[in-house]
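Researcher: Final request for today, and then I'll write up notes for the group meeting. The sequence and the SMILES for zinc ion follow.
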Amino acid sequence: MILTIVKYPEPVLSQPGEPITEFNAELRKLADDMFESMYAGQGAGLAAQQVGIAKRLVVIDLSGGKDPAQKIVLVNPEIISSEGKLYETEGCLSFPDIMEKVVRAAKVRVRAQDLDGKWFEQDGEQLLARCFQHEIDHLNGVLFLSRMSALKRDLVKRKIRKLQRENEW
Ligand SMILES: [Zn+2]
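Model: Predicted protein-zinc ion complex:
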């Protein structure tokens, strides 16, 4: 089922997610629906906040649904180490058509649970590292807007207000 992806400044996007404690069919269904919704929006990652649910769940697929081996589900994830820095363009399904450069670590290691509640660790570099950081930020109620320079942030906010006035946001 394709869920509605909420846009900035929907309050749920600023809300830290609750830890997930039940690893049941409902959680599995939510993850499936999030993958479907992310593919429909042509995104590489999606956090539960973006479908209006403040819980610590993320789905990622850098293949856009073409390679099932690249599907990643992170439950209750945290970044346990990071190194390097990259300044590259980033987008977000909650900010349609907004692309801005954001500084992120070049390499991170994530610790998370899978849909069965089993803990695992995964390394990410480049785009995957960026995705891990962007999505885990969502779980903490942090948007990529706040990772931009103050100047860029103001420009983006102004652009969104203009689109809102024109009913195009
Ligand atoms: Zn996002």
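Model: The first helix runs from residue 25 to 40. The pocket of zinc ion is lined by residues 92-94, 134, 138 (CB under 6 Å).
Researcher: Thanks, that's everything.
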